[in-house]
Specification:
Layout lengths: L2 E7 L7 H9 L4 E7 L4 H10 L11 H9 L7 E5 L5 H10 L3 E4 L7 H14 L3 E3 L7 H11 L6 E9 L12 H4 L4 H4 L4 H17 L3 E9 L10 E8 L4 E7 L9 E7 L2 E6 L5 E6 L5 E4 L7 H6 L10 H20 L14 H19 L5 E2 L7
Parallel strand pairs: 1-2, 1-3, 3-4, 4-5, 6-9
Antiparallel strand pairs: 6-10, 7-8, 7-14, 8-9, 10-11, 11-12, 12-13
Helix pairs in contact: 1-11, 4-5, 5-12, 6-9, 9-12
Bound molecules: 1,4-dihydronicotinamide adenine dinucleotide (NAI).
Length: 384
């Protein structure tokens, strides 16, 4: 049975709204039933109706949506929060407390305290609070995780993660309001580029190697001097299983596009995946030739086979990766509604605990950078 789904933020012209709508619609598991899509109530109502939401469920703001949905017999089961960062916490908390499942965009919150509170709130309400590290939905990212877990590259020694683009490199464009807010502490919080992009790379590294960041040291730079917050960061890490981590994130790397890549080096092999060529995974077994694994080849791993949507050789990309997060959520919610144990294969979506770990890492990196790169505990207080 299809689940009713709603969305807050992601209005017309937003960056990430369309990817959510495509992803949620891809498998026929969700009906787009309600929305408060825009900071401007009239624009939000109008856009929601043009997308097929009925007039009485096209809301002007999230508070009206909460009240409108709360007591409906056909109320939404899952709400996606795709608004600017500082609003994630109050919206996610209110919907969790009212018994809705939530998929919140990253960064989950601005402060560690709020992130810990969301973890506790979700647990107390027995609801899912997922976080959209959607790039872990790529079939070959899930395959990397499976290869590492089954020992294909031996014990992991080193992970190198990058998320470096060049879209904020133009000094003449630094005052453009769409760029400037990201570097304004009042609107962005304590970190710009690491919080915006670096945490995707960090979460993916943790996801693939199955280890959490224990401690880190960070060097933050504002390559454009007009910026208060960093536009480039280099972060060294130590993970819970002893793996060494290197992470570079930048918004001034001219010529780089999305720039998300992950390399994992173990005792008996290495792996390399780049989001801009997501259908190929480079696998180098020690002492042998480089192998290029194609998404959609049969019998890669149960995780990759489940996440692969079109046959080998056809391009598959980012909306399909996000759709894998939505399908995991639909399968898990449907099982819970039926009183059944959810399929463990659907349990790969990022959780509130992952969102919390990222926020703790952001604050640790800011602290470290301010202390000249001192090693700093990266674990959230509640997990120490
Ligand atoms: P955007 O500025 O392009 O769009 C934000 C949308 O939210 C606009 O339609 C705006 O009218 C609406 N909005 C703002 N306040 C609202 C409110 N109180 N109630 C309802 N709607 C409201 O922002 P963008 O780039 O789409 O980012 C949104 C969130 O998604 C951010 O937290 C960002 O970090 C995250 N993001 C995640 C990505 C991912 O790969 N997972 C990629 C891009 C953004």
């Amino acid at each position: 049975m299809r689940l009713n789904w709603g969305m807050i933020g992601g209005g017309e012209g937003s960056q990430i709204g369309p990817a959510h709508r495509i992803a949620a619609g891809m498998d026929g598991l969700f009906t787009f039933a309600a929305g408060a899509l825009d900071a401007d109530p009239a624009r939000g109502k109008d856009f929601a109706q043009r997308l097929g939401v009925s007039a009485d469920r096209a809301y002007g703001n999230w508070q009206d949506m909460l009240e409108g949905e709360r007591n409906r017999p056909d109320r939404i089961e899952l709400v996606t929060v795709a608004t600017p960062n500082a609003t994630h916490y109050p919206i996610a908390k209110a919907f969790l407390q009212a018994g809705f499942h939530v998929l919140v965009e990253k960064p989950m919150t601005v402060t560690v305290e709020d992130a810990e509170d969301l973890v506790r709130t979700a647990k107390a309400a027995n609801r899912i609070c997922a976080v959209n590290y959607g790039y872990t939905g790529y079939a070959l990212v899930r395959h990397m995780k499976a290869m590492v877990a089954r020992g294909d590259i031996g014990k992991v020694r080193l992970v190198v993660a990058e998320f470096a683009h060049g879209h904020h490199a133009d000094a003449a464009d630094a005052d453009n309001p769409r760029v400037r807010w990201r570097y304004d502490p009042a609107q962005a919080g304590v970190s710009a580029q690491f919080a915006d992009c670096g945490i995707h790379a960090l979460h993916m590294a943790s996801f693939v190697i199955g280890q959490e960041a224990d401690k880190l040291q960070a060097d933050f730079a504002s390559c454009l001097p007009v910026r208060t917050l960093e536009d480039d960061a280099m972060v060294n890490l130590r993970f819970s299983g002893g793996t060494v981590g290197r992470l570079w994130t930048s918004s001034v790397a001219i010529g780089r596009q999305h720039g998300l890549t992950l390399q994992v080096f173990g005792e008996t092999g290495g792996l390399r995946w780049a989001q801009e060529q997501p259908n190929q995974l480079h696998y180098m077994p020690l002492g042998k030739r480089l192998q290029i694994i194609e998404r959609g080849e049969g019998n890669l791993s149960p995780e990759a086979d489940r996440a692969s949507r079109v046959t080998v050789g056809h391009a598959e990309g980012m909306p399909e990766a996000f759709a894998n997060i939505y399908r995991d959520l639909a399968d898990t919610i449907t099982a819970q509604n039926a009183g059944k144990t959810p399929d463990p294969a659907a349990n790969l979506f990022p959780k509130a605990e992952d969102g919390l770990r990222s926020i703790a890492a952001i604050h640790a990196a800011v602290t470290s950078a301010a202390a000249g790169g001192a090693w700093t505990d990266a674990r959230p207080p509640m997990f120490r």
